[in-house]
Amino acid sequence: MIAIYARQSTNKTNSVSVDSQIELCLRECEGEYTPFIDREISNKKSDRPAYKQLLKAVERGEINRVVVYCLDTIVRSLTEFGHLWETLSANNTEFTSVTEKFNTATPSGREINSVIMNFAKIERDTIAQRIRDNYRERAKRGIYPGGPAPYGFDIGHTIIDGKSVSILVPNSKISVVKEIFELYAGGGISLGKLALHLHDEGISGINRTGWDNVSISRILHNPVYVKADAKVYSYFKEKGVVIYNDIEQFAGKKGCWLLGKRAQAQGSTSGAGELLVAACHDGVVDADIYLICQQRLDANKRLKNTGNGAYTWLSGLVKCGYCGYSMQAVSANAGRYVYLICTGKTNFKVCDAKFRSPHVDAIEPIVADKISEKLKELKGITIKEKHDGIELEDMKKELSVIEGKISRLVDGLADSNDVAASYINRRITELDANKSALVENIKKLLERRRSIEFPDCEFSSLSFEQKKALAKALIQKVCLTNGKPEIEWAKI
User: Fold this and answer.
1) Which of 105, 142, 159, 433 is most buried (most C-beta within 10 Å)?
2) Which one, of 202, 142, 130, lies nearest residue 168 by Cα?
3) In the CATH scheme, what is the homologous superfamily, with its name and number, of domain 2-131?
């Protein structure tokens, strides 16, 4: 079935009528067709009724070709056409634009489409850069750049240079932040014990989740809380962080924004690639306390993480069958015994199941036997990377939808006031976080599907690292309930 999409804008001056559009489209059509018409509606609106009905019909496999009078009838940017084309191509639907003489059913049309898609990618990359630039420019002015407010702060408003701007305002949780800094600076307490202390005090964590080492560390690292003075300036300068403001602006009162990605290298304390900006909001933690905490955190980074996954080749795969949280391997009696403990019980205080922590030596042989049985089933099979898997295509479609939402929000920034911009930026940040997580999932799926030649030998004869790699490739998770493992195999 051919679909003809026609739309007339709210501004009818010098526009082609819907009837004329359909008549011109029919010259490019043979056979039955179905019209999808949106009247007096802008192409800026993505929720156009007929347009949504058209996409649903395409996804149901009812449409083999979409015909429009011109491209801007149906989309307003190359990025939006890129998203539309991904939906059409996924459902084997061709596209024709009468005015542009563009038909994806012909070789020349496919070549044009390839060029358009390349430009659409450039436009998406440009939008992403605009988001980053907008975030940085707002931060350079010292105002709240967007995204969720840090723990202990709410988003308020103040007047700067005659304009209303967003700014951070302390809330009731800020006392918890101060306690975290003071306890950690005092020494004698680790990140883990500090997390347990907050649990015991009944204090809710970030986003109402429990406390752990990571959430505590993020707060301690964040200069948004410090009353930044010259010593803080010098500390970040020595780390290689680019500082936007002069040292005179670090007067021991205001907090800071730290922008950019933290160095990922193990043990690295470098600040290369980061930008520090003096903010407009007041800091809440004295500079001396903040710097003592940074010294402890930097010392932690320099310690080699020799115990990471060294106790068991099941590291990262075992989950508690009662609460779903990870089971962590810990040693006892100078390493003679290794137990699996529930982090939901020890770190997050959300698991109240009563069971004895199982020995790794009791769990590994059971899982090893199951893996050996699985290897016999897969003997001689090579699993190759699949780009056309259902799960992968679903994730790609979701990624396309998220990129489209971000694009529309960025376009809305230009006409928004400061208050609206803060909400738009917050939504963009949320979507960007979802996008990053989705990209990471796609990456993991592709890595799992990359060529794996299963060994033609007994699992027990493999080295520790070989066992670990093979278990990660085969197993999604191992659930422990009362010491009994249940294996959920990975989709291969």
Assistant:
1) 142
2) 142
3) Resolvase, N-terminal catalytic domain (3.40.50.1390)
